[in-house]
Structures are given as structure tokens and as C-alpha cells.
Amino acid sequence: MNIKEASTLTGLPAKTIRYYEEIGLITPRRLANGYRRFAPADLDRLDFLARARALGFTIEDCRALLSLRADPHRASADVKRIAQHHLDGIDDRIAQLEAMRAALATMVAACPGDAGPQCAILSGIAGAPGDPPGETRGSDRR
């Protein structure tokens, strides 16, 4: 099967498939004319990569997971370590997003949203010198 068919079956753009080949995540067979020929095992790897990337794993995590997947003597602890590290990163990003949401919600609630020039959103974004982003003047600082 050619790259267009592989792209259709996996849902990955041909450009992504070429990139995965370039960095060594897949190695489809090459025909004499240089065209790629994808075997079922290549499609399986591409499907795995697509699902792992959809979960937010980095390329290097994907490389490690593919290696572990291919190793019949792997320790599940090694797989879990990679996934746990990624999960911890997701939790950190969620906490950051929740803090951003709270700061923005406070500014939106404080803005009158009328025809006047006073706007707590602009004041909050501007902050006071040295204020961390999202902390508004007059907030509970001691």
C-alpha cells in the first residue's frame, strides 16, 4: 500500500507519515522507484503513534513506548513510568489552566462592560510592576 492509502487508513497526513519515517519511528519498504510500500505492521505502528500522539505523548515518549511495545521481555513498570510522568504533566497543565481561568473570571466579573472607559480586565492584565500575571491590583496581597 502507498502513502496515500496509509494516510487514509490511519487518518494521519502524508506529511506526518513522512516525518515519522524521517525520524526513524517507521521504516516502510522502498520500491525500486523510491515509492514507499506500507505493510500491515507499518500501519499498526502508525495507528499506535496516532493514538499515543492524540493522548499528548511526546515524540520521544512515543519512541520509548514503541520500543517497549516491541520488547516481549519489557517490564510494565517502564511503560507505567512513562505514562505517569505524562499524566503528572497533564495535571500540572490543568492546575495552570484552572488558575488562569480563576484570574480571568475575576477580571471579567469586575469589569462593568458598559460604555465607560474603566475596565478591570485591562487593569488586571497590566497589573502592578512585579505582579505575577493574572494578579490584579487590590487583590489580596500582603
From TrEMBL:
GO terms for MF: DNA binding; DNA-binding transcription factor activity
Database matches in Pfam families: MerR, MerR-DNA-bind
PROSITE patterns per record: HTH_MERR_2
Sorted UniProt keywords: DNA-binding, Transcription, Transcription regulation
Domain HTH merR-type residues, every copy: 1-68
UniProt entry tagged with the keyword DNA-binding: yes
Keyword Transcription regulation (UniProt): yes
PANTHER family in alphabetical order: HEAVY METAL-DEPENDENT TRANSCRIPTIONAL REGULATOR HI_0293-RELATED, REDOX-CYCLING DRUG-SENSING TRANSCRIPTIONAL ACTIVATOR SOXR
Protein name per its UniProtKB record: Transcriptional regulator
Organism: Gemmobacter megaterium
